[in-house]
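2024-03-11 09:14:02 DEBUG pipeline.ingest accepted 1 chain
2024-03-11 09:14:02 DEBUG pipeline.ingest length=288
2024-03-11 09:14:03 DEBUG pipeline.predict start
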Amino acid sequence: MKSAAAHLILFMVLFCPVKVVSAENIDDIRSVVYAWANAWQNQNIKHYVSFYSPTFQSKRLDFDAWLQKKTEFFQRPGPIRVGISDLWIFIEGKNATARFIQRYQDPNISDVGEKTLVLVYSKDKWEIISEEWTPLVMPARTTRAPAAYLNGPKFNADNRPSDTAGRKNKINTKPSNKTIVKSIELKTEKDHEEFFIALNTFSIPKVQSIEGEQPRIIIDINNVSSWSGQNKMPINGHLIKQIRSCLHRDTEKLRFVLDLRYADDYIIDQTYDKKTNLYSITIRQLDP
């Protein structure tokens, strides 16, 4: 049965000119993050600790002192819930950073924050060498990592659709120290849709998802002083029904809103080609 609310799971990968990141490594880190969260939620201390490097340190605690503290924490009575959303991954060589929104709840505590895991590839696996949590001022809500994604096929973020019918909107540009959106384009495939934004300079958009009966994806680009594109573009795609745009001149923020057609579950992959300054976001609908 399809969910009444849209759960949007976001992923971000930066491609550096010096190294092409393989999709296999991307999927490995995604799996590590979700398995780490599941081990924590299941209060399986042995499995949980296996994701950490022996060189891991937490503030002033070395690995052994941190392990003792965590073991005591896991022995507290009562169930816990750990939710992950807005997963962002950066890989360069044997080092990686995973950043996401973490929602934690137990019988006594409920909090929401941004968690950053720094990982290193060692002895044929990714291990956590440091972590940081920053509280967010926002209402707590429950999210889930859909089983259909964890157990189903992986979607490679570096794939590009082929034989697609696209819709493109080119924008006139001129030299400037501001960020310029050179063109936007939508490509549609049977099982996914991909929205491209070509920029004149390095600028990673900020992305957030809105759930509910009218799900949408919001893409914000900073340091934009002008925008001559259409404010409303009906798409009538399989998943995206409309693209809206608005330039907030006081803050120089250009906002794109992707209005989604159904209030269902989605997986959203983001890629940024640092060499060409091409950003893309791919929307896929989970199987019912």
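2024-03-11 09:14:41 DEBUG pipeline.report Residues 1-6, 16-23, 138-167, 171-175 have pLDDT under 50 and may be disordered.
2024-03-11 09:14:41 DEBUG pipeline.predict end
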